[in-house]
User: Fold these one by one.
Assistant:
Number 1:
Amino acid sequence: MSNIQLTINGVSKHFDVDSTMPLLWVIRDFSGLMGTKYGCGVGQCGACTIHINGKAVRSCSITVGACAGKPVTTIEGLSSDGTHPLQTAWADVDVPQCGYCQAGQIMTAAAFLDQHPDPSDDEITSAMNGNLCRCGTYPRIHEAVKRASQKRKATGSETKTAKP
Amino acid sequence: MNRRQFVQASVLTGGGLLLTFHQSAAQMLTAGRPSNGGDHTKQVNDSAMGDLLSISADGRVRYQFIKHEMGQGVSTAMAMIIAEELCADWEKVSIDLPDTNMKKFQNDRNGGHDTGGSCTIIYQYDVLRKAGATARQMLIAAAAARWKVTPDACYAEGHQVINRNTRASLGFGALAGEASNFAPSPSESIGLKEERKFNLIGQSKSAKVIPDIVTGRATYGLDVKVAGMLIAVVERCPVFRGKIKSYDASEAMAVKGVRHIFTNQQVAGLQRETPFMPHDIREGVVVVADSFWAAQQARSKLRIVWDEGANGSKSSADFERLAALRAINKTSPTAFIGDADAGSNMAHVKRTIRASYVFPHQLHNCMEPLNCTAKVSNNKCEIWIGSQAPNLIVTELQRVFGFNDSDIIVHNHVSGGGFGRRYYPDMAIEAAFISRESGGAPVKMIWTREDDHLFNLAHLFQHMEYQASVDQQDQLYAWYEKEIRTYTWGAKYADPQLPFMAYEIPNIRYDFEQMIDDELVHSSAWRGVVGHGRFYSECFVDEVAAAMGKDPYTFRRELLRNKRDVQVGDIYPVSGSRTLRVLDLAVEKSGWLKMHSSSDTGGTKGMGMAVCPYGNSYVAVVAEVTVKDQQLRIDRMTVAVDCGLVINPSGVANQISGGIVWSLTALLYGGLPIVDGRAVYRNFHQNKLLRMRECPPIDVHFVETNDTRPWGVGEISSPMGVPAVLNAIYAATGRRIRKVPIDMKLFSSDGTTG
């Protein structure tokens, strides 16, 4: 057991956990933030995607020890009021069905748009290909990412993703 | 309560209106007396629909959704129906998920929690309309009383009641409290809106749950937090029907955070005693710990010796061979049209075409892994879960543990996909057992994704044997279809009793045999619950067309030329005219007539079609594929839908499109191979699901219809991608593929022409 400091959504916390525990389970079982989902545990589905230093990371596949001292953003911290361009695009396009994978989809897309503010269709597909959706919402996810990128350009809010 | 009462009104605490609806036999509406108190639960405990609708003094409308929301969008659609009749402002309508209550929400076609078979909207439509219209009528009556005019001098619109003469208006919130005094009397009729005046039904609305989903606030079963909660995982026997011989938990118990280790044997085994929907709890060793991670660490240190039983040496290939042998057994028909033995009448038959198709077991792979939280102490049982049938959980908890109905509380959450798997009550039985054995502590049992692959229930296995007989006049004279399958919901055979098609063939026969006792994994309901194998009939129709030298579209049109309804032993007959209408629309929108098959330097292209009813909805699909460089690419899927009245076009399009993705996963990756009794795939790196890169454009088109009733949509497209693509592959390559998942080696250089 070790005492590990993480900054999750701007709040610094200490966790007395085994340093080899995947970050996902620290987020869910110890910080109590349940928006980050367990899907496969082996980095295949992307449901657990969060940001570390603004980069998309599969939280099931990184140990908490490797994240010590780093800023972590979960879906709860993506925006203060649920109005990140991706969150509003998801509602406008009526993307989710069961919704379970969608936090991971949005976090993947958010990090991607920060790096690629004006993506082509093919770049969107490549960026989102790692996230599974059993309900099959792919066409609408693609449409919503495109729409969010256009909205960010139009409003000049390309740094909308909340910085921890 | 008068059994003819439908509505009961009461005053909400803090003002406002609460409407409790009762489902009477004749659906007659009578007045309930308003109450003075806010504690409405006492007076409604014998109602069928419970506290369906409330309007608070600030005008907020809360609709009590008692079905299960698992991504099919039905909570939004149901709220739309009630809001339409109420003339409510959609933005002021919200959806609540009440606890399961078997007394308040009796399980019948008009009420109840049970959510499956694409039935919810079908059975709820009338009731919801009537409920919304009743509330509207009461609000109008309250406004009329205030203005001292007759109700017909007023109308409702946009969350207000308006006085026709003075143009004065009163908001629903301002009227809600008084409206409780105006519950309609038994003799009063409730006026429903004319369909042509609908202004919400038929409009695309985003699902109400989205704001919670995109912010991480939606609480799925796996996200439940209960004070003092422990986490359980179960290491189960890798072989179906296997048992524990012995186990050593000493090393596992030493892991920090582990609380208890015990077996689930008391509740394990195939549950054939259950009155409905037999299920399975695979025997195993339970680890209960402070955290998921500690439980998993300890689980890996268990030493278990299994008694694998006879299944330990069997493989899915053995099972398939057995099914193929059964397929040529001579059996009696389940049902037939014309002459059951027409195919052997050589005076008529000129040639016979045969084919065998296989649809193997398939996993549900709900994105939210299975889970259940339970707290059992002092003979009381509290359950937190996302379930399609919390009613079955209640009855099974009673059957297995002997709890009283009144001592069971089920908190039903939204779920991350149900697809039929969450219809089964096994998770709740097992979690309740684990909590009881853990001294009554609340325990959340979690299935890992590996558990999902190794120990789960699956789509039933189907072997379909077809034979078509062509007569001396070159007409399709007889159709024989035999199905071998592993699961029948306890029935003698699976409905419908005849092939699910409207084709006019003089002699049609359906035979059936089950293999439940031989299966290597327990079968269950899947999205497309009648069993996807039965939709291979659309491949065989294609084969018959090809054998007769006819275009697949022309051939189907000939078989539908009289637009007849055919009785197939289901609730609804199969409609020839509706089949034809979706088929024609799919052909028109897909460009079928321009390009059925072609070949150029871009590869070999082909189009294939499939059309079928599902329940009382109809779907036609045209698939466009390219086979190039030994690779299959699915270029486009065009879907035409007739689901009657469309409540929420956006939601229905999501279901149709999602169903196609579902079937393409089965087509390309599905299957549940078993070797030596053990499932081969452990996680998504082996058992793949379709990804965005492979997802073709999916165009969804609705037929123009005068149908004033909505029909189900959750499953209708899910079996249809497979036959459409297989037929397209034939058009492109001349090769028939008769089993999914497709063996990609078939497209190797020596296999592209078959």
Note: The beta strands of chain A are 2-8, 11-17, 49-52, 55-58, 71-73.
Number 2:
Amino acid sequence: MSDAQPRTVDPWRFTGSFLEKMLSSRIPDSPAYDPIPWTPVTKPLSESKLALLSTAGLSMRGDRPFDMDFERKNPTRGDPSWRALLADARSETVEANHLHIDTSYIARDLNVALPLDRARELVAEGRLGALAQTHYSTMGFQGSDTTTQEQQSAPEIAARMISDEVDLALLAPV
Amino acid sequence: MGLVARVIEAAGIPTVTLNMIWAYQNIVGMPRIAAIEHPFGRPYGDVGDAKTQRAVLEAALSVFETAQEPGHVEHLPFVWHESPKQTKWHPAEPSPIIALMQKRRS
């Protein structure tokens, strides 16, 4: 499962050469971003409330699913909205809509992308303070336009986390 | 996703991003990265592999405690249990953008 030696993660191990070429060609050799925001961690994990976020296009069954028809009609764009997920969400109560991955694994075990069961175990053992009431999903493929996700969805997610008194947010792209 | 992490962090909540393509860091500038060499769609581990899912979750959470400066990248030691050739992560049909590119090339 793991080895003890320090290692550098190969970001292209599973992409295949076509995707590697396409994706890596856009990455500059040196940092090309605005100053990175930073909020210091002030509490130990054992006293912190955690929210999870996945980019797997997850929505509660009965809620509006992520819009795949939009992307089929506009291949360079992706649904920029977000969904709230209940803390007791399970594979059976969630659907995953994402045209760039095989979502059947998530359909069998939500924990592969949103490990709510594992987080609950950590809370039960006292290693983690609490699990937030609400968790979050976006749909990872945004293509040529990230404006709505950045300027609308992300601030809405942050505001909801703050009103839920979340201390830490763990995000996982798929 | 990295952009979302920046917005949440700027709003006052510390973030860790568990990331396969952590090399995007040079474009995005994420506050804290836990880099992982897992296939797309299963960042925390395989179906039913609670042991790995839990270990990855704990390792990612530990980055909240260890990262001391913006842009920290922690390389997690996990090795996927299948070779890239054996690992199936692609959707059944090519995504619309890939289909479009293939059409343009042909």
Note: The first strand of chain A starts at residue 49 and ends at 54.
